[in-house]
């Protein structure tokens, strides 16, 4: 009997622990509705500190930071939300809206329009979706090859179908590889500091080439001590202190 009671207590405790993040999330949402943005962020951050992440959590954190006037963190969390749910229209709209408030606009120059076009087409899709499509196309292509060469069946339509399946498979593999490289292999960050001098080298004595602003997105090219080599979206680059940006 005592053992059964112990098991019941453990089960109830486990249920409470599992329910706690959702309870905290609802409480943070209520604080946000009450315009207590600092308190809401404290609760959201405690959920994040538990190692939990979701597009909804990051989206709400972005909203709270934006309401506080912290543009850098707002863009950061909108981008984190977009990484988990790239097809969400609300995330995309709020991200675009927030980035419009960046006092330095650098997005106008695109030296590689093909890259930008592919990124815009694949942007709404998750990597796992593209990977599943590639896997299904590979299986279909393999079956067509088996029928044509393994079984010796060669009707007129089969050759065209095999070639078409092979071409579509190559496009799908390219799309999956592009998405993986863009979203996971390429390290990106967001400028958080209000004053972010971009220097010609990784030292305090280096010349200041330009100044960044909160909300600007950069690609991480390298690191040296306390400095990070970054590339802005208008293709200008330089070195900034590590504590002035946050990795997405």
List the helices and strands and how they pair.
Blueprint: H1 2-33, H2 37-49, H3 55-68, H4 71-84, H5 89-99, H6 113-122, H7 127-150, H8 156-185, E1 188-191, E2 196-199, E3 208-212, E4 217-224, E5 227-232, E6 237-241, E7 245-247
Antiparallel strand pairs: 1-4, 1-7, 2-3, 4-5, 5-6
Architecture overview:
This protein has 248 residues and is α+β, with helices and mostly antiparallel strands. It folds into three domains: 2-99, Tetratricopeptide repeat domain (Serine Threonine Protein Phosphatase 5, Tetratricopeptide repeat), CATH 1.25.40; 113-185; 188-247, SH3 Domains (SH3 type barrels), CATH 2.30.30. 60% of the residues lie in helices and 14% in strands. The chain is built from eight helices and seven strands, in the order H-H-H-H-H-H-H-H-E-E-E-E-E-E-E. The chain has helices spanning 2-33, 37-49, 55-68, 71-84, 89-99, 113-122, 127-150, 156-185; strands at residues 188-191, 196-199, 208-212, 217-224, 227-232, 237-241, 245-247. The strands form two sheets. It has a five-stranded antiparallel β-sheet. A two-stranded antiparallel ribbon has the order 2-3. Strand 5 (227-232) and strand 6 (237-241) form a beta hairpin. Helix 1 (2-33) packs antiparallel against helix 2, helix 2 packs antiparallel against helix 3 and helix 3 packs antiparallel against helix 4. The longest helix has 32 residues, at 2-33. Mean pLDDT is 84; it is low at 1-19.
